[in-house]
Amino acid sequence: MQHFLTTADWSRSRLQSILDDARDLKAEPYQARLRNKTIALIFFNPSLRTRSSFDIGAHQLGAHAVVLEPGKGSWPMEFELGSVMDQNAEEHVREAARVLSRYCDLIAVRAFPKFQDWSVDRQDKIIHAFAEHATVPVINMETITHPCQELALMLTLQERLGMVDGMKFVLTWTYHPKPLNTAVANSALMIAAKFGMDVTLLCPNEDYRLDERYMGLAQEYTSSQGRSLTVTHNIEEAYSGAHVVYAKSWGALPYFGRWDEEKPVRDAHKHFIVDAEKMALTDNAFFSHCLPCRRNVKVTDEVIDGPNSLVIEEAENRLHVQKALMSELITP
Amino acid sequence: MQHFLTTADWSRSRLQSILDDARDLKAEPYQARLRNKTIALIFFNPSLRTRSSFDIGAHQLGAHAVVLEPGKGSWPMEFELGSVMDQNAEEHVREAARVLSRYCDLIAVRAFPKFQDWSVDRQDKIIHAFAEHATVPVINMETITHPCQELALMLTLQERLGMVDGMKFVLTWTYHPKPLNTAVANSALMIAAKFGMDVTLLCPNEDYRLDERYMGLAQEYTSSQGRSLTVTHNIEEAYSGAHVVYAKSWGALPYFGRWDEEKPVRDAHKHFIVDAEKMALTDNAFFSHCLPCRRNVKVTDEVIDGPNSLVIEEAENRLHVQKALMSELITP
Amino acid sequence: MQHFLTTADWSRSRLQSILDDARDLKAEPYQARLRNKTIALIFFNPSLRTRSSFDIGAHQLGAHAVVLEPGKGSWPMEFELGSVMDQNAEEHVREAARVLSRYCDLIAVRAFPKFQDWSVDRQDKIIHAFAEHATVPVINMETITHPCQELALMLTLQERLGMVDGMKFVLTWTYHPKPLNTAVANSALMIAAKFGMDVTLLCPNEDYRLDERYMGLAQEYTSSQGRSLTVTHNIEEAYSGAHVVYAKSWGALPYFGRWDEEKPVRDAHKHFIVDAEKMALTDNAFFSHCLPCRRNVKVTDEVIDGPNSLVIEEAENRLHVQKALMSELITP
């Protein structure tokens, strides 16, 4: 039995075999591979694509999905072992995970950071607690990384570009009125690096570097394949010659939990928006973003609606890669 | 591909063929017509009948439904093209509709008016935005009209009365402690007129006339078939000789968004309640209402529980007409 | 047609036949007994196990479940007949139950007490209103009793102990920071008594006796089978020689709705926690609890994680007994 918590635990070749299967499933969506199987989808945070694509994907494979929302439709939950549960939480993850493992064949969990203390959030306790206590496979539906989005992104790139080795992938920070999760940024960095791209991280200043864990993995992936990882704050340098521009906003880790202090810095970088002028510097690059996306804040209508925009394809591919993933985990 | 946004876009004969099919589906509920199809049900507002009848109806046809609630389980949404999305909305309908169109074969949307400015609400932007951006059929599950309720009402009347041409249909305003949506009132007016009934609108005073758009359509439908549309504030005149009494409360459009000013007017008309005394003036009329219904405020227990009450039949028929409708839109 | 509102309405032998069928279904979970059937699950309160086990159980039998949450995704509801509905409730249970009976083959309801006035709560109006107005079977998914939990508990005990007649069952009150529903306590008392166990109720003082209705039933069940019902406040006496220790917290009925006054009493009895020292007094007793369970408040990690803990088995068995129950009610 294996979990899918982060792509860091999976080799490039195993990930590629999931992508290959996803392509098959895209061509032939209804396959009763998971007949008489049940999937639990646990959302601690909102979702549109993830919720519907997992639910529909399970159904297309003959399985049945149930959606649970702890703290809303379900009980608030405790994650620490040994704690004295005299506060708000009514249920310990140890029971929830073990009971759901009796009812279901797979548990998928979305649990965003709390945004108060990065040293706590970076431990990713909720998904790890489920993985520790569950006796069935656990899938990460976004915590501090978003590995399903990684698979969707890479499938989309391979559909348009074939093998992407050596191509220039730019992950650009963009403005957003609120400090956001670094999950998709961490993930984009890792998957582009893992699949042999030359990766450039464009951000306003050094405070917007991603966590050393993900920077280190990206460095390791690129170095070992003779590729490069570059961090720059220079927009022109970043976009120049790019094959793929991937946009995402995130909050600066040094200001974590003290967002009022970061606000002026973010507000000063609204010009990081992806627009046609910047895209003109690239090698006719594809543009993508994970959705939901604030139009005319992160990217102009012109770019997101343009012929090189992959946002809808990437969102569609969530369905296909997740089906391949569920299939791999439940019936390896 | 065709949407079902309002019955105004559909001919009487096409609507009749849906009603005919609904009768077949009522006799034989399980037919795998929509096997391997998926339906997205998007609720911006609460629902009991609509949610369960669409979900169950889809299942009975072999399809799978997913329920999404933007702003609750899903992301808050933007509907204007070209807007700079720096406020609350995280997702633009353009992405949501296109992505769901990749996952699903039909999108159904419930989006009530905001009740602040009728000149805005009457544009019915949300459902039209979904219809514009989706690449699959869109069904209106109640916005400023409620076309599925229209089909259910007409099927119920035809089951009891056969063809209803020339029969007297009374839409009576009733009291309700809050100003309500005009959707079902607009819809009742349109469908009764479209199917050749003599239509009487009974309301407290001229302020409670419905929007000119729906008054105009009802006038056009009745005139072209040699029938009449009458507006009256006289209870006795309205009920006299009626074959069908349909009750609904709604807020007066001239007071839209300034409900405190309307309150005394509404409060002065609690006697518009449908009761046995009024029903005695009719030609043994059937009574109906769309549900949910406040008992002993809009209608007395005696009438709603009486032998001529069609409320449960009409609610049941929601299931059958919606199945016929989904079937027609997905596999025309 | 029969409802399942409380086990008090069902004979021991009929309950046993449900348990026997549950064992068969546990061995062979997928049986298309309820093909083309639909189940409505109505939650007025949160749920994890109940919601997922009913949904999954229905699916495993070939049926389809829809989840409704009045007041959240659905309309607030009125339960009194004859009321003038000019307050918050938009829908009367009489309509909701009759309409759902047209859409579905079974209605299951969770409705906790309001915790303001026990003389009101003990009437259990919501579930009885559904049972009165529905034209399909109604299942109690926890109100002031929790009969599905009773079945799961008894199946679990029989799996470990065979027939339990004459064995010592201890229901122990435990501390909890909030006053809780007596439902599971009432239920544990009834089912252990009904199946011929010697029942001991351990609680801090006379104020924590359960309602006379359930005390009376337990007395009747035990007396008629030559067994005993004992109430004690002495921990050592209760645990001594026990074969089963079942833990639950509940609020003291004499303080109902005036919980601030009860708080010091509860706070003074934190030592009622189930721990290894107390369990050592038993005849190697099994421990169980209905979940969710506050660890190290109601029971120590050592006991709940120990080899004699049945909590996960009992929770799993919810699935199996509920499938047998749905099967019995829909296709008797």
From TrEMBL, chains A, B, C:
Residue numbers carrying N6-carboxylysine: 298
Sorted UniProt keywords: Amino-acid biosynthesis, Arginine biosynthesis, Cytoplasm, Transferase
Alphabetized Gene3D superfamilies for the sequence: Aspartate/ornithine carbamoyltransferase
UniProt-annotated binding residues for N(2)-acetyl-L-ornithine: 142, 248, 291
Subcellular location, record wording: Cytoplasm
Enzyme Commission number(s) of this protein: 2.1.3.9
Domain Aspartate/ornithine carbamoyltransferase carbamoyl-P binding residue range list: 2-159
Record-annotated Aspartate/ornithine carbamoyltransferase Asp/Orn-binding domain positions: 182-327
Positions contributing to carbamoyl phosphate binding: 47-50, 75, 110, 146-149, 290-291, 318
Site (Key residue in conferring substrate specificity for N-acetyl-L-ornithine versus N-succinyl-L-ornithine): 90
Name of the molecule in the record: N-acetylornithine carbamoyltransferase
Species, as recorded: Lujinxingia litoralis
